[in-house]
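Our preliminary data section would be incomplete without showing what the modeling component actually yields. Below, a chain of 378 amino acids is followed by its predicted structure, encoded as tokens that our downstream tools consume directly.
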Amino acid sequence: MRASPLPAAPQLVVAPLKDSEMWKSRTLVATLIAATLAGCDKPAPSAPQIRPVRAVTIQGGAGGETVSLTGQIRAKDQASLAFRLDGRMIERLVNVGDLVQAGQVIARLDPQNQQNALRSAQANLASAEALATQARLTFSRQQALLKDGWTPRARYDDAEQALQSAQAQVDSLRAQARIAQDQLSYTVLYADGPGAVTAVGAEPGEVVHAGQMVVQVARQGVRDAVFDVSEQIMRTAPRDPTVEIALTNDPTVKATGRVREVAPQADAATRTFRVKVEISDPPAAMRLGSTVTGGIKLATPPGMKVPAGALFEQSGHPAVWVIDPQTQAVSLRAVKVQQYDPDNFVISEGLQPGEVVVTAGVQVLTPGQKVRLLEAAQ
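Predicted structure:
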């Protein structure tokens, strides 16, 4: 029996892909490969960065501190002595440092012009007085004749009028003579009270003007310590402070004073205010012109002094970075600044003594970031 042939194996017929389908397949394969490689190369999450910073521990009680000022001893009352008229000064009898008494001659002007004016006024007065005497005699005769009826009333009236006119002329010239006498007396300058000469403003031979300072005299008695004070200290100083004053070259020489005068306007050049402190009983060693140091306690409430580098800004307001002692993480906290200085500022609200704030590196911190102290907080 003849065996029948085996059936032919079925053939797999692969239909050719269209171009668009082939492009999609290749794109899918490339995407899967890229995703696989990217997953293999992705680094593991890094640990949060710990930034090194410097910090300081807050101490309380920065307010009420004492500041020192440098000033000079001056007389409370000073007089600038000057002539009342123009002229050439021929003599000055005192110099800086001399003591003068009331009525003492200080300086003289050339009196020639004033002497001539006085002589002329006196001569005119003498002539007027002679005419007045003649008019008085004439009036007396007319008065007697009128009484007896030997002269007309009109002549009597003329004599009376002439007498009145002559007397008025005498009064006028007498006043002019007194003025000329005063002008002559003004050529001599007198001290109007006791004191010490602290400055001179003219030398013999110079032509001086009326009111020009010839010498300056410091009155004896009460003296002032004069200081130039900044606006910042003016804001924080108490209303009626007691000032402790000591000689700069000998601090053992001390005195106490009270502020008696404060300039209402700051100096245009230095932007400081002139303050005069009255010393009622100054030691003898505190001479005029001595340099002194004045100590004044500021009337600021207690605050916390922080280095200037700690100051940060949050929405236009001052703030500082505070370090949590448990987690070493920082947080930004708003504060109220009471006083600014070049190196420090005083905080009145927002911090507590013992807290630690960042003083260097504040510009690169973010809330919650952990930090590492470069040095121990102080």
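The helical segments are 19-41, 112-148, 153-185, 231-236. The chain has a mean pLDDT of 83. Preliminary results of this kind motivate Aim 1 of the renewal.
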